[in-house]
Amino acid sequence: MAELTAGTVPDAEPMLGLSFGRAISVVAAEDPDRPAVTGWEPDGTQRMVTRAELDAQTNRIARAWGAMGIGEGDFVSIALPNSVAFIEAAIAAWKLGAVPQPLSARLPAHERSEIVELADSKLIVGAEAETHPNRRVLPLGWVPDQSISDAELPDRVSPSLRAMTSGGSTGRPKLIVHGQPAILDLAVTDRFRVTRDGCHVVPGPLYHAAPFAFSVFGVALGNHLVILPRFDADATLRAIEEHHATMVFVVPTMMLRIWRLGDEVRDRYDLSTVETFWHAAAPCPDWLKADWINWLGGDRVHEFYGGSETQALTFISGDEWLEHRGSVGRCLIGEMKVVDPDTGTELPAGEVGEIFMRRDAQGTPSYRYLGSEARTLPDHWESLGDMGAIDADGYVFLSDRRADMILVGGENVYPAEIESALMQHPNVLSAAVIGLPDEDLGSRVHAIVQVTTPAGDDELAAFLGERLVRYKLPRSFEFTAEPVRDDAGKVRRSALRDERLPR
User: Fold this and answer.
1) Mean pLDDT (the chain, rounded)
2) Single pTM value for the model
3) Which residues of the chain are under the pLDDT cut of 70?
4) Three-state DSSP string of 89-120
5) Same topology for domains 283-402 and 411-500, yes or no?
6) 125, 76 Cβ separation under 8 angstroms
7) 389 and 353 in contact (C-beta within 8 Å)?
8) Which pLDDT belongs to residue 363?
């Protein structure tokens, strides 16, 4: 390994404005032997790389890929499981000026091929060559020849930090290509409370936007990433204690499963080093959030709301939430307004409508779509399809997705509200509520529920009857032992509905 010293990359070089590739070299020079990334191999063994090893190995990978013809602006699809190799692949792409394009390692070959064709990826990492003919493919477990130089590379800046995948409302894949170059923005890291030289435990899938963003911002600022292969409630708490985590990003499904461990199990672990528990990606039931704030303190539980498109973002601390219960915070990046979804007219404070966002009045793009078009209004306003209200103080309250709203006998029913009530039941781990055709009411509410032990329709109906008005109650229940939501807490209600419609 080539010697990496402060003379190679000066200690005093400021982090502001650095490319992500360069930032990795800077923190490596500052403290070469400090842990950079810890992950688990398929056989269950841990693998840890230091900052110097991460910098050197990603230099080798980048050189190997460069020799394959990968260069600035090329998309590199990363179909690896949560691992050290995933982070190495993203960094190597940035060091070439290429764009990381994260994918789930569990995608069927056909679905992965659709995304790869849409992206026109120049390299796919973690797949079998025969599944992508006429494209450069590297299999799971590929490593560069260790004889390749690990010396510092010329600094390059990728035109985009990432290109995330989304199914979209049509069910066809789309890519959300980040609109800014891969340069470390300290204003963003400050807003998300990412500090220098901490430790991030990563229990969520790296192919989702928030776990990916928190991980790469963290490692670029010298944080030790501890990446779990998959979410496990007990293992997450164990990793936090063992590695003295300072930050963790979770989704409400994870919060519920950690909470269901019970006081006796949760109290075994020391979580005192954690400065910030972020949550986002799905609605969090009020009762669950209140319990977490009571457990950890309102100064440590934080929430944000916005899409991978990042046109606008809201933020709220736990202490602030207690004063504005149910809110996802005020818009602190970009702008938001609520409009009548039919007329596009802005609604008064407190009225529920469709939420539109924009980065700023000049319309500076924060992203671009491949494979889709945004729902827009004049003057650069765009919608992610969410319904909600903004009160007179500027606090945003979400209802649900516009496409998921169920019209029952003329009444608007929001699935998230019913799902939140269902998850209060001690035997419910996750739930999804959809609308199915009904001759009398137009639509009826159907609940798909993951339970720990068998439950009956009457039991859950009675439980919900104490919490919801009658027209919101499910007319039918479907029980499963399998998770209803994915590892990031997401649920595709449209797909669930389509599977249950008569053919």
Assistant:
1) 90
2) 0.84
3) 1-16, 167-171, 363, 410, 503
4) HHHHHHHCCCEEEECCCCCCHHHHHHHHHHHC
5) no
6) yes
7) yes
8) 65
192 vs 189: CA distance, rounded Å: 5
User: Can you tell me which residue has the tokens 């130089």?
Assistant: 149
Beta strand ranges found along 403-493 (DSSP E): 406-408, 411-413, 428-438, 442-451, 476-480
Q: How far apart are the first and last CA of the chain?
A: 61
Angle 168-385-439 from CA coordinates, rounded to 5°: 90
- 298: its two tokens: 């309102």
Per-residue tokens: 388: 């909600």
CATH class of segment(s) 283-402:
mainly beta
pLDDT at 10: 38
Domain residues of the chain, as ranges? Answer: 20-247, 283-402, 411-500
Please give the CATH number for the structural domain made up of 20-247. 3.40.50.12780
State the fold for domain 411-500. GMP Synthetase; Chain A, domain 3 (3.30.300)
The residue type of 360 is D
Residue identified by tokens 């809110």 is 327
- Phi, psi of 475, deg, nearest 5: -85, -15
What's residue 167's pLDDT? 59
Residues near 359 by beta carbon (within 8 Å), at least 6 away in sequence: 310, 311, 312, 334, 335, 365, 366, 380
- Per-residue pLDDT reduced to its tens digit, 276-321: 999 998 888 899 999 999 999 999 999 999 989 999 999 999 999 9
Cβ atoms < 10 Å from Cβ of 128? 11
Are 469 and 445 within 8 A, CB to CB? no
pLDDT of residue 15: 67
Strands (E), 179-300: 199-202, 224-227, 247-250, 276-279
